[in-house]
Model the fold of this input.
Amino acid sequence: MSEVIVRLNKFISSSGICSRRKADELILEGKISVNNITVKKLGYKVNIGSDVVKYNGKVLQHQNKYVYILFNKPFNCITTSKDPQRRKTIFSYLPKHITNTYRLFYVGRLDRNTTGLILLTNDGMLARNLSHPSSCVEKKYSLLLDRELNYSDIVKIQNGVMLKDGLCKIDAIKHNNNNKRCIFVSLHSGKNRILRRLFQFLGYKIINLDRYSYANLTKGDLKLGEYKILQREDIYI
Done:
């Protein structure tokens, strides 16, 4: 078998833990070893097939193939890899041959009571790009409120509402014509629990919250708890 030689920072990045730039920082900080010898030299090259690369003592696996999975998270499911309370996590719904083969990251975290789309991938660079505010990833939600959203509050939302962590800006908001308690919202903000906090501030309770679109990806016929494999070109970033 012919040798496959790559730069150490590329190897680290391909393992999914960080970008190449961050990998250079880890190397200079002495956190990377090759065959149990600490390497602090930028531009150092490794053999994918034979060299053992470790980060803080943990072996890194070079990923030869990236996978992209769109998952429709059900209610009462935890967005994490492991839960100490042994509740179902998003990874519980994936087959073992996927979770045992690939070190997957989730992109677009949702809280336990929110349903909808989450992207899972071992492409660390894509995951970071999608998560970064500069990427301006659009997210679309449907909400069911405990009562009708009145016009004056719609105007407040459109103008921006000041919360504790800053101004909350929504791109678009509209009623469902058949049910004034059902609201459709699109936004780019990545702030934690932003919609729940926004409507609580205005005096409403969200009964159901579902993300039906993320980064131009939509559910289609994907049911709750189901997933589908994507191609890189399906993700527009």
Summary: The chain has three domains: 5-59, 68-133+220-234, 138-214. The chain has a mean pLDDT of 90.
